[in-house]
Design a protein that fits this description.
Layout lengths: L5 H4 L5 E4 L2 E7 L8 E7 L4 E4 L5 E15 L5 E4 L4 E4 L5 E16 L18
Antiparallel strand pairs: 1-2, 2-3, 3-8, 4-8, 5-6, 5-7, 5-8
Length: 126
């Protein structure tokens, strides 16, 4: 059994952040689960341009308010508590936080926990 708390991850290499976001990588590749699970916070007013070319990502909103834009289609979807969105086609997207967002994010394949976004908003192959 794996038991991890957000507090244990704070301040370690698995506590990643960048302009407007922070991600605590709770379950990572070394755990052998086939996915990684992250507690992600997006600051109010942040606009993140992302494109996970090598990973699928599913996000569940716990709190806050924002929107996600599918760059390929121009569709914009509201995000409020209870919303889940999945990037099932390696979708380039823009995440906007109207209010601070708290998300639970799942990546497949799993991240090792120390990745940083590349200039194009993606992570290297896992």
């Amino acid at each position: 059994m794996i038991v991890v708390t957000s507090e244990e991850i704070a301040g370690t290499p698995r506590d990643a952040s960048g302009p407007g976001w922070q991600s605590r990588r709770m379950i990572v590749r070394e755990h052998g689960m086939g996915h990684s699970v992250h507690e992600t916070r997006v600051a109010k007013g942040a606009e993140l341009h992302l494109h996970y070319k090598n990973h699928f990502e599913t996000n569940y909103c716990i709190s806050g308010e924002g929107e996600v834009e599918n760059v390929s289609t121009g569709e914009v979807f509201p995000i409020v508590p209870g919303t889940i969105y999945a990037l099932n086609e390696h979708d380039p997207h823009i995440l906007r936080a109207k209010e601070a967002l708290l998300l639970v994010c799942v990546f497949t394949p799993p991240l090792s926990g120390s990745e940083v976004h590349r200039e194009d908003g993606s992570y290297a192959e896992g």
